[in-house]
């Protein structure tokens, strides 16, 4: 299958491009130079037309991973966030015919703090620009007749590019450098590793059509950011003494973010007979990948 993946300069997109290229013809786009075993081009998603991108890749399936995810940046640059995270979906639909499938990777941030273990049927009410921009992308799919799928998730993982770092790298690097960090013990989430998430993507693209417009695919266990960080460090045999508990409410200069970022994945698991990972399985997957990369 010919697959176009956007955002391959990011953590999820780069790993997904490498994994899917083992069985498919993958075309990828990002915002910087990349060294990947796929067909790659730099493409600006803020462009008015995506015809050039589609003519180049001629996809049968598009996996739209690209997004501006930094909450504070989105808050300060709302039009850019809405364009890249939201209107890009409309442009992809406009540039392709009805035979092309589209998977849009969305987020738990479309929900408000008042919902615990949000279901696909719950009303969205994003509390920041990032969430609103992703809700806009969902809007275009929900109002399309096309064979499209929205996947809401909360991914964790490690970047294959050493010059980039995310939540997991920050925790581990801080411990290795003996630096004190604060992790929220009042923020709940249901994390899934990018590699476990990719297994579900690999399953879904074998289906002839997407019979549901929205699926929640995340971890199968609720934890706090503090609990996640402590378990991560313990699994990697790293020092936990410099990790402090804290509250998200202390950080008043941050873009508003829900205290409850949990997703209920019951519908997906029962509909497709899939078992999503526990917290410990998520951590162990990251340890396995990390060890394999060290050996390489």
UniProtKB/TrEMBL annotation:
The protein's Enzyme Commission number:
1.1.1.133
UniProt pathway: Carbohydrate biosynthesis; dTDP-L-rhamnose biosynthesis
What name does the UniProt record give this protein? Answer: dTDP-4-dehydrorhamnose reductase
Top-level taxon of the source organism = Bacteria
| A biological process term (GO) from this entry | dTDP-rhamnose biosynthetic process
Cite the entry's keywords alphabetically: NADP, Oxidoreductase
Source species: Flavivirga rizhaonensis
Lineage of producing organism: Bacteria, Pseudomonadati, Bacteroidota, Flavobacteriia, Flavobacteriales
GO CC annotations on file = cytosol
């Amino acid at each position: 299958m010919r697959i176009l993946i956007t955002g391959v300069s990011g953590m999820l997109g780069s790993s997904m491009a490498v994994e899917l290229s083992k069985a498919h013809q993958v075309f990828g786009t990002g915002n910087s130079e990349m060294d990947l075993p796929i067909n790659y081009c730099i493409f600006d998603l803020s462009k008015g037309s995506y015809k050039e991108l589609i003519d180049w890749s001629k996809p049968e399936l598009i996996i739209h991973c690209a997004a501006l995810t930094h909450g504070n940046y989105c808050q300060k640059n709302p039009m850019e966030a809405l364009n890249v995270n939201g209107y890009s979906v409309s442009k992809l639909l406009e540039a392709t015919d009805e035979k092309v499938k589209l998977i849009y990777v969305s987020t738990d941030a479309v929900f408000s703090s008042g919902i615990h273990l949000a279901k696909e049927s719950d009303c969205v009410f994003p509390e920041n620009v990032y969430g609103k921009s992703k809700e806009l992308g969902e809007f275009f799919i929900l109002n399309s007749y096309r064979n499209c799928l929205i996947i809401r998730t909360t991914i964790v993982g490690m970047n294959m590019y050493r010059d980039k770092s995310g939540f997991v790298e920050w925790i581990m690097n801080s411990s290795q450098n003996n630096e004190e960090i604060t992790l929220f013990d009042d923020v709940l989430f249901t994390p899934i590793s990018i590699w476990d998430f990719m297994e579900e993507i690999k399953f879904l693209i074998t289906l002839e059509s997407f019979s549901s417009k929205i699926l929640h695919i995340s971890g199968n266990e609720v934890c706090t950011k503090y609990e996640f960080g402590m378990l991560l460090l313990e699994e990697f045999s790293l020092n936990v003494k410099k990790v402090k508990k804290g509250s998200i409410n202390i950080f008043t200069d941050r873009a508003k973010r829900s205290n409850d970022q949990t997703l209920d994945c019951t519908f997906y698991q029962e509909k497709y007979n899939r078992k999503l990972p526990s917290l410990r399985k998520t951590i162990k997957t990251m340890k396995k990948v990390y060890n394999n990369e060290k050996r390489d």
